[in-house]
From TrEMBL:
Binding positions for substrate per the UniProt entry: K82, R231, N232
Record-listed NAD(+) binding positions: F60, A116, R231, K258, Q260
Species of provenance: Emiliania huxleyi (strain CCMP1516)
InterPro entries cross-referenced by the UniProt entry: 6-PGluconate_DH-like_C_sf, 6PGD_dom2, G3P_DH_NAD-dep, G3P_DH_NAD-dep_C, G3P_DH_NAD-dep_euk, G3P_DH_NAD-dep_N, NAD(P)-bd_dom_sf
Known catalytic reactions: sn-glycerol 3-phosphate + NAD(+) = dihydroxyacetone phosphate + NADH + H(+)
SUPFAM superfamilies, per database record: 6-phosphogluconate dehydrogenase C-terminal domain-like, NAD(P)-binding Rossmann-fold domains
UniProt name for this protein: Glycerol-3-phosphate dehydrogenase [NAD(+)]
GO MF annotation terms: glycerol-3-phosphate dehydrogenase (NAD+) activity; NAD binding; protein homodimerization activity
Family assignment from sequence similarity: Belongs to the NAD-dependent glycerol-3-phosphate dehydrogenase family.
GO cellular component: cytosol
Residue stretches making up the Glycerol-3-phosphate dehydrogenase NAD-dependent N-terminal domain: 1-132
Length: 303
């Protein structure tokens, strides 16, 4: 497992993980099995690999080293990364960037209602593999599926991935509602509109989107859990309460982790402005305006 090298109490994080079998900074109290080895050298970590799992924040994706790595035959990739990029007049999927950067490697995605500490505690949940080829879908489903982590699959990489990315934007809207003290009815409306705009965005920019995708764990289920319990929701609640800038809130609440919803909200708005589509996505546009243009959080219900 490649791990970005950090210092924790004067020691390398990778050394701590390998000695204690625990990520004491980001997942304290949850132990790894002994076969999970942290390696700060990405070339060493992936040498001979036939399956690559990408889980880094999307703003930190770097492929220079991986392009010359000694990988195993018929290597496949899967992305758990939440986010999109803006390139050449439209949105680009992280899985597409991985595929192109890795010489056309077969790349799937895994998204779902999977809050990390609950998964680590072995609490039951579901997830969804979005695949391009049946063979890859079967491999990833077999690899991840277990009695407490049930994995479905659907031939819809773009739909599954966009659900995982855009739910973080919707969660900002849910957090604004919480910060203002609004009740469940209001938040339910935000979730409904958010799911509708997510599906519309996906179908507008990508082909082959499946209707069933939005009823899988990657769709409605992930949206609900993120809008009620995720860090994007919590940080947006603090923002609506006036507890500081996004940077201040990120530093005080996330223990070095990065907030994905605000980054994705910017990327989405860049796409919508470029295509002059803001009016077709009133919730996405309003969330951006509240987050970055000083709009009153109360306007979240004035769509």
């Amino acid at each position: 497992m490649w791990v970005y090298q950090e210092q924790v109490d004067g020691k390398n994080l990778t050394d701590i993980i390998n000695e204690k079998h625990e990520n004491v900074k980001y997942l304290k109290g949850k132990t790894f099995t002994n076969n999970v080895v942290a390696d700060p050298d990405i070339m060493s970590a992936v040498k001979g690999a036939t399956l690559l799992i990408f889980v880094t924040p999307h703003q930190f994706l770097k492929f220079d080293a991986l392009q010359t790595a000694e990988l195993g035959p018929d290597c496949k990739a899967i992305s758990l990364i939440k986010g999109i990029e803006f390139e050449e007049g439209g949105p680009r999927l992280i899985s597409g960037i991985i595929k192109d950067s890795m010489g056309g490697m077969d790349t799937s995605v895994l998204m779902g209602a999977n809050v990390a500490n609950e998964v680590a505690a072995d609490e039951f949940c579901e997830s969804t593999v979005g695949f391009a080829t049946e063979g890859a879908g079967a491999v990833w489903q077999k690899l991840f599926d277990c009695p407490t982590f049930r994995v479905g699959k659907i031939k819809d990489v773009a739909g599954v991935e966009l659900c995982g990315a855009l739910k973080n934007v919707v969660a900002l809207g849910a957090g604004f509602c919480d910060g203002l003290g609004y009740g469940g009815n209001t938040k339910a409306a935000i979730i409904r509109i958010g799911l509708k705009e997510t599906a519309k965005f996906a179908r507008l920019f990508f082909k082959g989107i499946q209707d069933d995708t939005f009823m899988e764990s990657c769709g409605l289920a992930d949206l609900v859990t993120t809008c009620f319990g995720g860090r994007n929701r919590a940080c947006a609640e603090a923002f609506a309460k006036g507890e500081g800038t996004w940077d201040d809130i990120e530093k005080s609440k996330l223990n070095g982790q990065k907030l994905q919803g605000t980054i994705t909200a910017k990327d989405v708005m860049t796409v919508l402005k470029h295509k002059k589509l803001e009016a077709q996505f009133p919730l996405f546009a309003r969330i951006y305006e509240i987050a970055f243009e000083g709009k009153d959080p109360k306007s979240i219900v004035e769509l």
